[in-house]
Design a protein that fits this description.
Largest sheet: 10 strands, mixed
Number of domains: 3
Strand order of the largest sheet: 12-11-18-10-19-20-9-21-22-23
Helix content: 25-40%
CATH class of the largest domain: Alpha Beta
Number of helices: 16
């Protein structure tokens, strides 16, 4: 078979500006053009080494009149009075030199668009044994990320930044998960690969297993270009908190009324699992003296609480069936001078105790719905990733303090489970508004869990996918441990922060203008972030987009967890493929 013809040059390396091994400029021939993010290649002969190929990405393009002196000359040139010509010059940032002989391209050397193998070589795709498609480049060709920097082999974790509502951070994170699971890149490991998604913005993520009715043929063609099926998530489970003041524990959702399980923690679990520290999840709390009271009370509850029916507990002879009752019981013990020694420690001052009690009582309203001792234990009540590939935990109806509690407790439980099970399976954990859970300043139990995942999670098979409006407000160690950094539309002030130093100046400026669906993806092997456009979601992102509930199940149905599963009217909806 004959090799494909070599593309004709689009221009020549200019001689009026310095060329370096890392950056050079190209004067475009008449009738040719280069746009930002195009991939180009040029060659020169080096004695003793032969042909040296320099590949790069267009990071700036400018046009000017050559022969003009003043700004007003443009009118004379347009009228044909003053001789001049338009010249476009593209700035190229080098991505790869092969072989590694770092010499500058010589002026006058032909430059051509990189296609096929040359493009793959320029972007190091030829060095990636396991490639995850993340979207299409400006040339309409697929862009890949090396799985080894996602699965913990050589790195892990993803940081996604951008303006809320415009940067499509959540949409990109979901597409990344979809691509990992459906591209076949995981091979046999796909069986044990899971995703845990915390949803804080409405019920948008409760329809991931529904096809998107708005998906058109053009978008399906884009999925095909990436060698991905245009279909919803085939294995998904959904959890939501119970409806407040509802004695049946019905999940607190409105758009999707079947296939969703309610989650809560019993008082017995709250005591035995020492979950009290997660009640105090504000970043500033860990710096206060009353934190020692938190751990003292938590340890005391673990020792003396005895479980009884429906998750209630008996503590020192009193039966407690609600979170309110537990809080008041603790307050009574700390108010009693004789009991305070056992519950708060022998040298704890009354001021410290009162500070603890004030904050504990402020948790009554946020947490009384999800810490219960009055509900019969139901199958599937506990948030678990075991029975489906993607697990969505809906938090949008919970107060912010309760959201922190849920995220902290669930992540701590999943981390402990992975430590016992080993790193054989992968768990991708997606958290939106990461700056709320792991802010740059202060410390808290949930921040410590996230730091633990960021620093040693990849050795356990736990990969963090964090999304935030401002990376500058997220704990530095979490951002620095993220091998893959993704940026969407940015606020101009945020774009100037040092956390975005990996973006070239032209891309920083473009990030302020980026339209929804365009992201800049930085990965360790490629020195220049790549602009990608990812397809429109093939899954419904709201009830109005749903093409209808799935018609079959793959054995991981949530119907066993659904309180309405036995009702005849809900039978069709309950056959969801989880």
């Amino acid at each position: 078979m004959s090799s494909p013809p070599t593309p004709s040059p689009v221009g020549l390396v200019v001689g009026t500006e310095d060329s370096t091994p890392l950056q050079f400029c190209v004067a475009l021939q008449p009738g040719e053009y280069l746009q930002l993010d195009d991939v180009v290649v040029t060659q020169r002969s080096v004695p003793g080494h032969g042909a040296v190929t320099t590949s790069g990405v267009v990071t700036e393009v400018r046009a000017r009149h050559e022969g003009a002196t003043f700004g007003s000359d443009v009118f004379l040139i347009a009228d044909g009075v003053l001789p001049a010509q338009v010249q476009e010059v593209a700035e190229i940032t080098t991505t790869r030199v092969e072989p590694e002989v770092y010499v500058p391209p010589t002026p006058g050397s032909p430059v051509r668009r990189a296609t096929g193998h040359e493009r793959a070589q320029a972007l190091y795709f030829d060095k990636m044994d396991l490639k995850v498609p993340v979207g299409l480049g400006r040339d309409g060709e697929p862009i890949f990320v090396n799985l080894e920097f996602l699965d913990g082999t050589r790195g892990g974790h993803v940081s996604i930044s951008g303006i809320s509502g415009v940067a499509t951070k959540t949409s990109f994170a979901l597409f990344l998960l979809y691509s990992i699971f459906r591209s076949g890149v995981l091979g046999r490991r796909a069986v044990n690969a899971k995703a845990l998604v915390f949803s804080v913005k409405g019920e948008d993520l409760l329809f991931l297993d529904h096809a998107n009715a708005r998906l058109d043929d053009e978008q399906r063609a884009r999925y095909a270009r990436l060698n991905l099926p245009a279909s919803p998530f085939s294995s998904a489970g959904f959890f939501a908190p119970p409806t407040p003041d509802d004695p049946t524990g019905r999940p607190y959702v409105s758009g999707r009324t079947s296939g969703v399980a309610a989650f809560w923690w019993t008082l017995a679990e709250f005591c035995s699992g020492e979950l009290l520290p997660f009640v105090f999840a504000d970043a500033e709390d860990e710096r206060n003296q009353y934190t020692m009271v938190i751990h003292q009370v938590a340890a005391r509850l673990k020792r003396v609480a005895v479980p009884v029916a429906d998750g209630a507990v008996v503590v020192e002879g009193q039966t407690l069936r609600s979170y309110d009752a537990l809080v008041e019981f603790v307050a009574d013990r700390l108010a009693d001078e004789d009991a305070r020694r056992d519950w708060a420690g022998p040298v704890t001052g009354i001021g410290t105790v009162n500070a603890f009690l004030r904050r504990l009582r402020s948790s009554l309203k946020p947490l009384r719905t999800i810490v219960r001792g009055d509900l019969a234990d139901a199958p599937g009540r506990r948030v678990s990733t075991e029975n489906q590939q993607v697990t969505v935990v809906d938090l949008h109806n919970l107060p912010e303090r309760a959201q922190r509690f849920v995220v902290g407790v669930v992540l701590a439980a999943e981390t402990a489970r992975k430590e016992q099970a080993g790193a054989a399976g992968l768990l991708f954990t997606m958290i939106d508004e990461l700056n709320k859970y792991a802010p740059r300043e202060g410390s808290s139990p949930i921040k410590e869990v996230l730091l633990d995942i960021a620093e040693r999670g990849r050795s356990l098979g736990i990969i963090l996918i964090g999304a935030q409006q401002t990376a500058s407000e997220v704990e530095r160690r979490i951002v620095s441990n993220s091998s893959i950094k993704v940026v969407g539309r940015l606020d101009p002030a945020e774009a100037g922060r040092p956390e975005y130093g990996f973006l070239p100046p032209s891309q920083r400026a473009r990030a302020v203008l980026a339209k929804p669906g365009t992201m800049f993806v930085s990965q360790p092997e490629i020195p220049v972030p790549l602009a990608v456009e990812f397809p429109f979601p093939a899954w419904a992102t709201r009830l109005s987009e749903s093409a209808g509930a799935p018609a079959s199940t793959n054995g991981h149905a949530a119907t066993a967890r659904d309180p309405f599963a036995r009702l005849p009217a809900g039978a069709e909806d309950d056959d969801a493929p989880f």
